[in-house]
Amino acid sequence: MKKYTQPGIFSIMVMLSCIILCIVLLFIIGFDEALPVAIISFVILIFIVCLFIFYKLTIIIDDTHLTFSMGIGLISKSYPLSDIKSCTPVKNSVLWGVGVHMTPSGWLYNVSGLSSVELSFKNRKAKILIGTDRPDEVVEAVRAKINGVQAGSFYEKSGKQGIYLAVAVLTLIIGILIFILVSGHQ
């Protein structure tokens, strides 16, 4: 099993700067009015959640799957190596930035930098771009696995648990915001 972890230096710098700015803004406006305090607190909480999601990206290549997860694992995906047709190193456009979004080349999962690997699949046209600071090493590891004899997989890893956790966290944040707003009006 090979594991490659890229720190999200760009994401960490941006999120921490925004959190510090919001905290300073919170102290400048004061704590007298409930609505502005609730809104800024909500924004701070969102940036903290984003920081936990985008502070790193880890790629794990085992005998049957290529798996990656971002941050604490809220966003994770796994692909059977038997479904991967090719893996190539690519440079992302500066305009594509970081995060999780669709690009002209396919879905991009990135936390920092412009380097990534592009996965093409045997049974679909869609491509996946996964950011990494060591694209050549990842490509070499994947190619060694997909060109060698592969064991069949008895299960599929889905990564859907991250979606459920993200929905639960978002629901909790909205609930706290509503509680603060209702408490502030009384």
What composes the largest sheet? 5 strands, mixed
Poorly predicted regions are 149-158
Mean of pLDDT: 86
How many domains comprise the coordinates?
1
Helix content: 40-55%
Shape: elongated
Strand line-up of the largest beta sheet = 5-8-9-7-6
Task: Please report the distance between the alpha carbons of the first and last residues.
Answer: 57 Å
Structure description:
Helix 1 runs antiparallel to helix 2 (34-54) and helix 2 runs antiparallel to helix 4. 44% of the residues lie in helices and 29% in strands. It is elongated, with a radius of gyration of 20 Å. The protein has helices at 9-29, 34-54, 135-147, 160-185, and strands at 2-7, 56-61, 65-70, 75-80, 84-91, 99-103, 106-110, 115-121, 127-131. The protein has one domain (1-186). Strands 5-8-9-7-6 form a five-stranded mixed β-sheet, covered by helices on one side. With 186 residues, it is of the alpha+beta class. The model is unreliable at 149-158 (pLDDT under 50). It has four helices and nine strands. Strand 2 and strand 3 form a beta hairpin.
